Amino acid sequence: MTSTLLFLDSLTGPLQYGFFQKGLVVATISGALLGFVGVYITLRGMSYIGHGLSHAIFGGFAAASLVSASFIYLGAGIWGVSSALAINWVTRRHRIGADAAIGVITTASFALGVALLSRFGSSGPSFDNALFGSIYGISADQIIMLIGVSVATAAFVFFRYRSLLFTTFDPEVAAASGVNVARTEAILMLLLSLSILATLTVIGVTLVAAMLVIPAVVARMITDSFGRMLVLSTAIGAACGLTGMYLSYFAAVPSGTMIVLTGAAVFCLALAWQGWRSLARTAGLDDHHEDTVEAAPSTTRST
Amino acid sequence: MTGTGVGPVILTLDHITVAYESEPVLRDVSFHVHSDQFTGIVGPSGSGKTTLLRTLLGAIRPQRGSVKPRPGLRMAYVPQLETVNWNFPVTVSECVLMARTKGRQWPRASKADRADVTGVLERLGIGEVADRHIRQLSGGQQQRMFLARALLSDPELLVLDEPTSGVDVSTRHDMLHLLADLHEDGISIVLTTHDLNGMAAHLPHLVTINGTIVAEGTPHEVITPDVLERTFGARLEVLEHLGMPVVIDDYHRISPRAAS
Fold this sequence. Notes:
Radius of gyration of chain B: 19 Å
Structural class of chain A: mainly alpha
Largest sheet of chain B: 6 strands, mixed
Number of helices of chain B: 10
CATH superfamily of the largest domain in chain B: P-loop containing nucleotide triphosphate hydrolases
Number of strands of chain B: 11
Radius of gyration of chain A: 20 Å
Shape of chain A: globular
Helix content of chain B: 25-40%
Largest interface: A-B, 45 and 43 residues
Number of strands of chain A: 0
Mean pLDDT of chain B: 87
Low-confidence stretches of chain B: 251-260
CATH class of chain A: Mainly Alpha
CATH topology of chain A: ABC transporter involved in vitamin B12 uptake, BtuC
CATH architecture of the largest domain in chain B: 3-Layer(aba) Sandwich
Strand content of chain B: 25-35%
Order of helices and strands of chain A: HHHHHHHHHHHHHH
Oligomer: heterodimer
Shape of chain B: globular
Helix content of chain A: over 70%
CATH topology of the largest domain in chain B: Rossmann fold
Mean pLDDT of chain A: 81
Number of domains of chain B: 2
Largest sheet of chain A: none
Distance between the termini of chain B: 41 Å
CATH superfamily of chain A: ABC transporter involved in vitamin B12 uptake, BtuC
Number of domains of chain A: 1
Distance between the termini of chain A: 81 Å
């Protein structure tokens, strides 16, 4: 009885602080959002793009912070969306592979961000906070942006569920069946960029990719149904965000690190529960997109 | 059986040239698809069969020439089984339902959509596997699942890439009969294959291709040693069996007369 009370006390204790309440809400929604979007990203074999885009957005974050603190998110958003669309465009033109496009565009952007912050300092969030996440200083605007992006993403998936699933599973057949694959992919990249931007403060640049991948991979190990995978991945992401935030508070370490470590622990638990064979289900998560890219045609028309 | 294409033209490929990078895969190909077409495209590996299908579907833009589908033409595509990501987490019914992309697309299918999926799966004889993961199907069931997905969009033109590869003889036979039934129901069908004898026995119209169209016509017109040599680059013997041409691809081994 006493230990139960102590446990409940430890859970409710941090809630007396306003910054923790905000952090908890943002971490939970962030985990859910990244888990949700991550299903499409991992199934398309684009896990690397989450990693790359978070770094690209950091470049925009740094550049915008030098101009004006009030333009940080707008600037980083424009930068991130531009990077995402550039990667999508380069990949669709098939001049170079998706991984190479991501490598060039996003690492250059990240390097620029580091150089700008090192040389000129920053009027916005600190370098460490941007890299590893922090629950301090979360503003109402950030919460509104996160909720807005989450609602927009959920609405897009809800109203375009089958087109998105078809495009993710087999873009070529989807296109032949009348789905506007280019537009669907562009919107997905846009939402991915906005999701990374909205969760950057809490999760951090270097760790956001992990939360795009881990919940989706764990969900894939548990289920063979796409619909259930979407629900499970969202729930796992939210649970990791919530738990990681508490652990971050008690361990006094950056929130992003504990959220990702919680996700890694959940992965280990799923592995112990489902066994090594469950990993076989995730085998196709890293090659599907490249297959379609390699098989894709020249798109130049000259009649 | 009709199928040699006497109905209205629904799609035209007009002198198309398609290249990956600088090397042309198809050169100056012209091809008409009629509303009652039932055509097999035959050719060796790398001859441009799949490229022709993808051009026809609008997935590839030709460097020269044009692709002109009739406005509003409903097309559906059945891909090669080898190109599918079988680890993708979808059940059979989820996979078939993907094709319903017009109108309401909410995650929970409407009662009418669910009934349509059940109907098409049962029509193709795989109603009992609706809730299975796609990897848990046999080759024939996998092929029927993609056919069901294609049929759910009520196509006028059905395009299939190697529908008889990777399945056993019995399944191949069943698949070709199934396609013949669909053609009888009014669906125009174009497919690619390596299976010369299967095509000769089941399809009324063949096109042989090797970078460009070598010949087209009925099986008797197309399956001749001369056409096959120009298509495959090797001399193949053709026998007549029950009124159908049969290709012997190792004639010297089975024919003592030829061996001598």
